[in-house]
Write a structure and sequence with these properties.
Largest sheet: 7 strands, mixed
Structural class: alpha/beta
CATH class of the largest domain: Alpha Beta
Radius of gyration: 26 Å
Mean pLDDT: 89
Distance between the termini: 20 Å
Low-confidence stretches: 1-15, 354-359, 464-475
Number of helices: 14
Shape: elongated
CATH architecture of the largest domain: 3-Layer(aba) Sandwich
Strand content: 15-25%
Order of helices and strands: HHEHEHEEEHEHEHHHEEEHEHEHEHH
Number of domains: 2
């Protein structure tokens, strides 16, 4: 078992009882092989919440630091008095959130010199070793000192030059090791590294040599309970599920909203003036747009089952040229001014900043002034949060179009929102990219679907936190 392999080191080191944070892990053959790996560089694309960060990023780092001067453990042994190890994530906030508290909880206080350095995110160990948490939003944080080992977590979300230009050279002086973990992000630099690691490992084995690189992969279903996997399949579209829970390097090409089809997602809808209405904004001039959504029961054309509660696009604003925020708001009031129930507003978070677009205030301030003046403050509410990564927003919207369990949670009325249908059908991805929207080929597109995406991300993000019952301390 993985737990046995890790605790064996602790027992041999005569360190005594570890902290309660060292809970048991669910047995898994590939994880067993990873724990025993003697490769210097391990590439580990694995499913979401399946233990990769816990095993590679946290426990291995702690054991490497605590056992750095044990000659009977050659993989961990370092000959110099000040071994340095790092845990890195795409940003400093991420690495602090993912690693910092857990690393402190995994190390018994008797092995820490004084207290961990909260400002530098560094834990000093009594044997001279140090564990650092680094954010790769500034990859130069890894430069200037030699490292004995580390982990690059969510490597697919890091800049592609982090490894070759900033980290690799810092491992040379001490022949340090490095593990690359995370869920794939399309076919980017992480995909290239994974393919290279597989090829190098196979080549070394054919020559009868010890591989310097190795590759490990497992899916979330191997670790998470069956009901959690079923919940994910209910929420996610096929490609998103394959990437997030099966750790597949999905090739995102062609249409951005590939799950949207005329047969499944276009149809006649009813507007109910007594139910809540949602206005979705993407601040633009040519065209000026807004989408109008009302949740209702939607037919399930794929599964043939009972209707599902979902999003009905019952209207839109589309002003081709010379628009501004005030004109869009005026059009919404003209079309929906007699609405009897509450109105919720969603949209681009960056529209809230004052700028050259208007001397009267930010886009959001203008909208609040217009809508509150007409409908009243007690009926208009704003749900705005920082914008998600574009890929996460796309995944969320595709999952509303058609989930892996064949549920349809989005229908557009073509007579009420014809430009919305055109947007869903026409937005494409950058050829050869990793899932980025092509905003140059057809600049009149993307705005309506972007507006809807902000609402979906607020209400139904695909990366919701699932309750786990089978394994603790995983992500």
């Amino acid at each position: 078992m993985v737990q046995t392999q890790l605790l064996r080191i602790a027992e041999e080191s005569e360190m005594g009882e570890l902290t309660r944070r060292w809970g048991p892990l669910r047995p898994h053959a590939t994880q067993e092989r990873l724990v025993r790996s003697s490769a210097r560089f391990n590439v580990v694309p694995a499913g979401r919440r399946s233990g990769k960060t816990e095993i590679v990023g946290k426990r291995k780092l702690v054991m490497a630091a605590l056992n750095a001067h044990r000659k009977d453990l050659p993989y961990f042994y370092r000959e110099w008095p000040d071994p340095r190890f790092f845990a890195a994530a795409p940003t400093r906030d991420q690495v602090k959130r993912i690693y910092w508290e857990d690393l402190k909880a995994l190390i018994p206080t008797r092995y820490v010199v004084g207290k961990p350095n909260e400002s530098q995110l560094m834990i000093p160990i009594v044997n001279g070793a140090q564990i650092w948490c680094l954010g790769m939003d500034k990859p130069e944080r890894a430069e200037g000192v030699p490292w004995d080992g580390g982990v690059l977590d969510e490597y697919g979300n890091m800049k592609k030059d982090v490894w070759p230009n900033h980290v690799r050279a810092s491992l040379s002086d001490r022949r340090g090791w490095c593990d690359f973990i995370g869920v794939p992000e399309g076919r980017n630099h992480y995909y290239d590294l994974a393919k290279s690691a597989q090829a190098r490992c196979e080549h070394a084995l054919k020559q009868g040599k010890q591989p310097e690189w190795d590759y490990f992969h497992w899916i979330s279903a191997d670790i998470l309970p069956a009901d959690e996997i079923a919940a994910a399949r209910e929420d996610l579209d096929e490609l998103t599920y394959q990437q997030e829970y099966e750790a597949s390097f999905v090739n995102f090409t062609g249409r951005a909203y590939w799950a949207f089809t005329e047969d499944n997602n276009v149809g006649r809808l009813e507007y109910n003036p007594g139910l809540r209405l949602d206005f979705c904004f993407d601040f633009n001039v040519d065209p000026g747009v807004a989408m109008v959504v009302q949740e209702q029961w939607l037919p399930q054309k794929v599964s043939g089952k009972e209707p599902e509660w979902g999003d009905g696009v019952v209207g839109e604003v589309y002003i081709p040229r010379g628009s501004n925020t005030i004109r869009v708001a005026d059009k919404l009031i003209a079309d929906w001014g007699e609405h009897e129930s509450s109105i919720y507003c969603y949209g681009d978070f960056t529209g809230g900043a004052r700028g050259s677009a208007s001397v009267l205030g930010s886009d959001w301030e203008l909208i609040k002034g217009k809508l509150w003046n007409h409908f009243g403050r007690d009926r208009v509410f704003f749900r705005i949060r920082p914008n998600p990564r574009e890929r996460d927003r796309l995944n969320s919207v595709n999952s509303r179009c058609l989930s892996l369990s064949k549920k349809i949670r989005l229908v557009v009325d073509p007579s009420r929102a014809p430009h919305t249908v055109k947007d869903f059908e026409g937005v494409t991805l950058i050829e050869g990219g990793t899932g980025e929207i092509d905003k140059k080929t057809a600049p009149e597109l993307t705005h309506l679907t972007d507006a809807y995406g902000y609402r979906v991300w607020y209400e139904y993000p695909v990366k919701r936190k699932y309750e786990t019952t089978g394994q603790r301390y995983i992500r």
